[in-house]
Amino acid sequence: MKRKLNDDTTMDGIMRETPAAIRVVLQHGMLCVGCPIASFHTVSEAAREHDLDEDQLRRDLQAAIDAGGAG
User: Where are the domains of the chain?
Assistant: First the structure.
């Protein structure tokens, strides 16, 4: 069963568990890769901090997870 994003999912957790999500993060202009705050920021907080459409970010991250996440 594929993993689903939830309200507690951190940006760091997504990138560690699904390396393909790193591409999504970078495509959205986010610098979460290597950021010390990524281990604390949830998807919602990161979207808000970067002034992004949270729903679109979640869809794109979920698509990376669903695709298998290998990168």
Answer: 11-66
Q: For 20-38, what is each residue's pLDDT tens digit?
A: 999 999 999 999 999 999 9
Q: What is the dihedral of CA 70, 48, 5, 7, to 10 degrees?
A: 150
Exposure b/e, 34-68, CB count within 10 A at least 16 = b = eeeebeebbbeebbeebebeeeebbebbbebbeee
Spatial separation of the C-alpha atoms in residues 21 and 71, rounded to whole Å: 7
Q: Work out the pLDDT band at 6, boundaries 50, 70, 90.
A: confident
Tell me the β-bridge partners of 10. Answer: 42
